Automatic annotation (TrEMBL):
Residues 3-72 form the Flagellar motor switch protein FliN-like C-terminal domain. It comes from Pelagibacterium lentulum. GO terms for molecular function: cytoskeletal motor activity. Belongs to the FliN/MopA/SpaO family. It is a peripheral membrane protein. One of its GO terms (biological process) is bacterial-type flagellum-dependent cell motility. Coiled coil: none annotated. Keywords: Cell membrane, Chemotaxis, Flagellar rotation, Membrane. GO terms for cellular component: bacterial-type flagellum basal body; plasma membrane. SUPFAM superfamilies: Surface presentation of antigens (SPOA). It is found in: Cell membrane. This is Flagellar motor switch protein FliN. Its main location: membrane.
Length: 79
């Protein structure tokens, strides 16, 4: 068995982010709207173990939400 096939990686996808005081967060209820720092057609950010590796877009297929990779993020040499 190939060793790489047994390594697990935590993948997360970020639609956007917001900064708000904790007291605002505690007041949120059902139906609350949180304004994010992204626009409608901005790419989602894809992270592997909290490191940005790619950008992508959402697709819905048969009720299943998918993220399609549209761009790899390449880190500069030496980082």
């Amino acid at each position: 068995m190939n060793t790489l096939e047994t390594i697990e990686v935590d993948i997360s996808v970020e639609l956007g982010a917001a900064i708000m005081p904790v007291h605002h967060l505690l007041r949120l209820g059902r139906g609350a709207v949180i304004e994010l720092d992204t626009l409608e057609h901005d790419p989602m950010r894809i992270y592997a173990n909290n490191t940005l590796i790619a950008k992508g877009e959402v697709q819905v297929e048969e009720g299943q939400l998918n993220v399609v990779v549209t761009q790899k993020v390449i880190k500069p040499a030496g980082h």
